[in-house]
Write a structure and sequence with these properties.
20% of the residues lie in helices and 22% in strands. It has a five-stranded antiparallel β-sheet with strand order 1-2-3-5-4, with helices on one face. The termini are far apart.
């Protein structure tokens, strides 16, 4: 999608601080960090939101969560814990229409988030 900011990051048209990358998944630091560690994990395949996922995407989702686990371990979050957030649709707070997962940690996280 030419106008999708995450697709532009994947294509290298917009710079990012990459944390992890393979053929299917990219993880990079969020420029609007809400915690000491705030990494966005996205599939390279454009999928607008969780609402568009189907059975065919199961392996990709498994890989995304494996990457989240790996990044959490590398960032020292595994022992004390971390939060994974996915916003779906306008009322769910989704502002970029490319499915993505926020990995947040490095401090005690409160509920509601903030």
């Amino acid at each position: 999608m030419a106008d999708c900011i995450f697709c532009q990051i994947i294509d290298g048209k917009i710079p990012s601080q990459k944390v992890y990358e393979d053929a299917d998944v990219l993880a990079f630091n969020d420029i609007h960090a809400q915690a000491p560690v705030h990494v966005l994990v996205i599939p390279k395949k454009h999928i607008a939101s969780a609402q568009e996922l189907g059975e065919k995407d199961g392996a990709l989702l498994g890989k995304i969560f494996t990457v989240i686990k790996r990044v959490a371990e590398e960032k020292g979050l595994a022992e004390k814990g971390y939060r994974i957030v996915n916003n779906c649709g306008e009322d769910g707070g989704q502002t970029v229409h490319h499915i993505h997962f926020h990995l947040l940690g490095g401090r005690q996280l409160t509920w509601p988030p903030g």
